[in-house]
Write a structure and sequence with these properties.
Strand content: 5-15%
Number of helices: 12
């Protein structure tokens, strides 16, 4: 067994004194902006936002606007992020978290004088936020997430509207991403008010499948809009088996649900 070097012993003893004085808690924790998973900042502060303000798939924007400290802490960490150096799952998780957090910030900047993101000029295409040394719009952030090649991202990013997929009550994490995206997709499609409704021989789908058809069929959006069979091939494996069989057997026409852009305020 090695002997403790004197400086090490002094440092260890000092550390025990600090721990004892703080009642068993470290006197000062490492700043979250320094806790990196590879080159991606910790999403712990964003997780606290969701834990505190998430409700029924939306956010309590009034309460968040009154106590935005954790949101601001997470957003401040994004400036130094380098997601390109992370693995694919971490990149997807990162960009989904960024999209949802920046959307929340843009909403509370105008709250309570906002009833829909559509009422804010440039909400998606012009307003920017600094991420990894760039000024990015929400559209650009979403594009970064989708560029990783998983269309289930459409059910993870939430545009603060009633017809959007529900906001998840936890951050996305690379290690859990497959399970998280799978549950987001299945839960969205199980909601007949905004995901999928099958009745009277017609299949009603979210307008997301119309606007981003190419992402689900592997072709251009214009061509994929008419590729009904390819769209069904993507959707049906994410449904309960019995429902999927019924839809396949019915060979239904496809219609698209109206999109409700009212704020997902709780």
């Amino acid at each position: 067994m090695r002997k403790l070097r004197f400086p090490y012993f002094i440092a260890a003893f000092a550390g025990l004194l600090v721990l004892a004085a703080s009642g068993g808690q470290l006197a000062a924790e490492t700043p979250e902006t320094e806790i990196m998973n590879g080159s991606i900042p910790s999403a712990a502060a964003w997780g606290r936002v969701l834990e505190r303000f998430h409700d029924a798939g939306g956010l309590d924007y009034a309460a968040l606007a009154a106590a935005p400290e954790d949101l601001e802490s997470y957003l401040a960490s994004l400036a130094s992020a380098r997601p390109a150096a992370a693995d694919r799952a971490e990149r997807i998780a990162f960009w989904c978290n960024v999209y949802n957090a920046v959307t929340a910030k843009f909403v509370i900047e105008r709250y309570p004088d906002i009833d829909s993101v559509k009422s804010v000029d440039g909400f998606f295409a012009s307003k920017t936020f600094p991420v990894g040394g760039e000024e990015l719009t929400l559209d650009a952030i979403e594009d970064r997430a989708l560029a990783q090649g998983d269309p289930r991202v459409h059910f993870a990013v939430v545009c603060a509207s009633q017809s959007c997929p529900d906001l998840r009550s936890e951050p996305y994490r690379g290690a859990d991403l497959e399970a998280q995206l799978d549950s987001q997709t299945r839960e969205f499609l199980a909601d007949p008010s905004k995901g999928l409704l099958f009745e009277d021989g017609q299949l009603w789908l979210s307008s997301l499948f119309k606007w981003y058809a190419g992402d689900f069929t592997g072709g251009s959006t214009v061509v994929a809009f008419f590729a009904r069979s390819k769209l069904l091939d993507w959707i049906l494996p994410h449904l309960p088996e019995e429902q999927a069989r019924e839809i396949r057997a019915a060979n239904p026409t496809i219609r698209y649900l109206d999109y409700d852009w009212a704020l997902n305020d709780r």
